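User: Second chain of the day. Same drill as before.
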Amino acid sequence: MTEYKAQDFKKSQPRWCPGCGDHFFLASLHKAMAEVGVAPHNIAVISGIGCSSRLPYYVSTYAMQTIHGRAASIATGAKVANPDLTVWQVSGDGDGLAIGGNHFIHAMRRNIDINMILLNNRIYGLTKGQYSPTSPRGFVSKSSPYGTVEDPFRPAELCFGARGNFFARAVATDANGTVDILKAAYNHKGAAVCEILQNCVIFNNGAYDPIYNKEGRSRNAIYVRHGEPLVFGADNEYGLMQEGFGLKVVKIGENGVTIDDILVHDAHCQDNTLQLKLAMMDNEHGFPVALGVIRDVEAPTYDASVHAQIEEVKSTKKYHNFMELLETNDTWEVI
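Assistant: Same format as last time:
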């Protein structure tokens, strides 16, 4: 087996603003590609339009920048046409959830075997600072000078509502956490959504400041790992317990709470109730932000099902290709 290095997947000099989260993510993608070991000529990176959608220019694989919001549909076609291809689809929150929202939910519903990267900076950066579908209510931007009067999409909620089977989250500046979820997405068979939280240093800097550095994540984030207790804090002194139909934060060792009282993460549970609650936690309501693989459930994939159906139909027919089809009917020779 050929061993690859991150350098094998690098191409050209990225043209993003210094400090942009896209730089951090690209480095993690190069590393993840090297570690999963798929040859560059067996990979396709497909994007739409936006700052993050320039990424295909910076990977030494097959790559294609498509049109605004259509990355998921192009990626679907590529995977169905060539099931052996590893497909990485890259979109921003605007490209993926606004004009591309319809394609996003149907990729989930169909469970096409592609890795869907959502680089979420809660702003339209390429077009110079309009609010996006993930901008919070009241957000002041060039297109909402008095604050938005809309509630945002929350990507996990949208993914789960469309019957998604894989959802993971990482912070762009957390290289190890990002590489881990990208590798998990590759190993998952089906539509795998990885939400990457990142700042736009020009138009929305500080959007994720509470968790953008390691120290902040130790206080304000929780790394969820299948089969392990849901604990967090600098010394893992806090944990999550179920309270009614919701969750609550507790301090281990206080009020009789022990580690045995803490919920254990189950990413493989078919029922997504608790997984969704984890994905929806935020600092504003006194909870840590969940990072890592939140949901990872097996289900039939669209591309495999299409090809299985084709083989099944072929087995019952007298013809197996176009020429044989022509020869099954009456033929005439024109002289």
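The chain has a mean pLDDT of 95.

User: Great, on to the next one.
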